Amino acid sequence: MKADAAEHHGLRGYLQQKSWYRWYAVGVLTLVYASSQVDRQIMGMLLEPIRLELGASDTAMGFLVGLTFAIFYATLGMPIAMLADHTNRRNIIAIAISVWSGMTVLCGYAQTFAQMALARIGVGIGEAGSTPPSHSIISDLFPPETRGTAMGIFALGVNIGLLLAYLGGGWLSENYGWRATFVIVGLPGLLVAALLYFTVSEPRRGASEKAEADRDADNVADQAPAFRTVASHMWRVRSTRHLTIGAAIAGFIGYGFTLWMPTFLVRSHGLSPTEVGLTLALMTGLIGAMGTFSAGKLADVLARRDERWRTWVVAAGKAGYVPFLAGVFWVDDLTTALILYVVPAFFGGFYLAPTFALVQSLVTLRMRALASSIVLFVLNIIGMGFGPQLVGIMSDWFAPEYGKESLRWALFVLTFLNIWCAYHYYTAGRTLHQDMANTSNDAPALKI
Prior knowledge:
The protein is built from 22 helices and no strands. By secondary structure, the chain is mainly α. It has a single domain, classed as MFS general substrate transporter like domains (Growth Hormone, Chain: A), CATH 1.20.1250.20. Helix 8 crosses helix 19.
């Protein structure tokens, strides 16, 4: 095919011949992921000024940053992932970046709540086309033994994005207003799209495993199984089932905290937007990045002794930080609260790399993008869709009794769901050995 042949010429072909190319490729994909997180999470820094200008309640703002975005992001992710299992994944990602960046810019021109909701829907539609194809590409570049580390690097995009959203969003909002902030953070995504398109090649599917049975997969579009086949396989495999449920609960907690913590620090501790940005950039951005990367690397190291540690590291992290996170909302002193928050900031994204690395290993080659999108669908519909929404509802519910501290107690209640999350990750590990063996043995039949 002419398009495939072009991959081996020019700048892309030159880079692909270098020994470090696969690390470069995952670096660019991490930059893509960071761009999506900036455009997604910037709302957390701008919730209060937008709410005041539009005259909305906490429940309404929870809807704006939750279901409004999540329904389209999660739902469209699956058909786009099915397309990615058939065609060029890099091109899909490049188009997706252009869409979400443009829609982020349009958020800055919204004059009503309805216009803002439509613009956020557009951001969600664009971001639906990025992560599942990225997971699939990384899995073709890195074998299972180092896939956790590669996914850990990719997952750093969350923390880099949060760092930029918090740090830049707070300062930009305070000095230029929330409208200009949307425009400034949206435009760089177009440069990221160009960097991806002109320097990263579409890898051969199954290249990291040197899969003989799938050596011609890139030329056989109908080898990708139907949605029903992939979903049925994922439900039947107990490890995948518990990983998906655990990830959904983790996302529910994570999005609830990420999008409401800036408002909590403003209301309960009186911080300015710039102070909030600096504080959360240090905590969630830098400390969180160390935790996110450590999870993937630690899972790869411990799995050499026992594969089950790929899920048990997440279970230990999620259950272990509950007392510290509860303490953040129990104490009134800001310094004490921030010291306690170091632990949950480190372990907050611990689930990302091990989860998606394992999902890629528990399905066959042509299932990878779709399997990733199914997990993201459940994670984002439940997590992003209902996590921020529930926090907003509980805050309004607690308001008559607790006044401006109602958000504090809504987040305090959310803390204890981490124990439920830890249970599912621990349970996923109990059957992991057998499930991975079964998936490998069933691979030929599942490709049809």
